[in-house]
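SAMPLE LOG
Freezer: B-3
Tube label: C17
Construct: single chain, 315 aa
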Amino acid sequence: MRHCDRHWTSAASRSAGMRAEVIDALTPPGGEGCAGSSTRAANSSSCEDLSGGVMNDPFARKSGLQRAAHCAVDAVVGNRWGSIRSVRTCQPLVALTFDDGPHEEWTPRVLDILAARGFHATFFMLVENARRLPMVVNRVVAEGHEIGLHGFDHHSLAGGSRRSTRLELAAAAAELAMISGEHVKYFRPPFGAQSVGSFLGERDAGLETVMWDLDSFDWSGLGEREVASEVIARTEPGSIVLLHDTLADDPDCAFDRAAATELIVDGLRRRALQSTTVSGLLESGAVRRAAYFSLSTWGGSGVRAPVPLRAGRHR
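STRUCTURE (predicted):
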């Protein structure tokens, strides 16, 4: 892992150049349009930059060609077919988001840390966990945090149809709303895996899909300090950070989620950054979207592939 990290910055820089070249190739002669605007933003270093750029992208470790293809597709279809990825803002705001909970130990401890620092977050919950821990859910709401849906359980929906996804998520959102007493409007797919069909089903269920631009890798076996140092260094205004208050597939793993959260929150405060909810972040600037679709439907990799351009013609 560390050996690869030494080459991360140079590879990311090469990828950024390729991204601009591919987007330029999509720009019609004599006019910039959306593609030209994206190219200017990709090359900008101002606060209008792409909320952290390549280094904050969860796919920054992909090859330059893969990333260039992803960004080219985003420039063409991202606004219509894109999931929320980050926000372009000059305000010192980020959104910490926690997946897979609630958990009887970690979620209350994370809440204690957030409350002590005046930070707010969005918790993408599994209904099966919320059923067991309604008091924890109620505390999340009472302390000013936001609740999003992560599914009934942690199975991938990428292999399902548009209709089956709509029916499942509508029922899950209704139950989570009943438990929490709050309207549920955001959804994050388990593993970040979705197909065009499941993405459309998410929209049909009245849900806005929220991904991230910075993966903490707190699920990967790294230590708490290593995870925290990466998040602190890579978070920029407008970032949506992926964290977990438990792991659905390994709830008893040894990773100390409270310790990691404390390190991250204190580090962000030293950088004069404040965490708000996803809704709060969206109010601070222009939303950035990306087309996240899975190459496979098994759901374990979070693999992202460009959606075919012809998909934009479907209703």
